[in-house]
Write a structure and sequence with these properties.
Elements: H1 2-20, H2 24-70
Helix pairs in contact: 1-2
Protein name: (rape) hypothetical protein
Coiled coil: 35-69
Keywords: Coiled coil
């Protein structure tokens, strides 16, 4: 998390420098690239969260079954 924040700050600093230099093409390309990276990170995190939710649901079903089997 700390590394991600550091990278984000560095990216923002670079984008500011590019935009301040008046190099709109490079600035726009850098923004597009960073946006794509963020989209990929969000998609990966969503996939991981979904997988964890599925695993939790299965574990809860297993616990329910075990309770029924032991009569708890």
């Amino acid at each position: 998390m700390v590394d991600e924040m550091k990278k984000m700050r560095e990216d923002i600093k670079l984008l500011k420098e590019l935009c301040m230099e008046g190099d709109e093409h490079r600035c726009f390309d850098a923004i597009k690239e960073r946006l794509q990276e963020v989209k990929e990170e969000v998609a990966e995190e969503a996939m991981i969260r979904k997988k964890m939710e599925d695993e939790l649901k299965k574990m809860l079903e297993d616990i329910k079954l075990l309770k029924e089997l032991c009569g708890c």
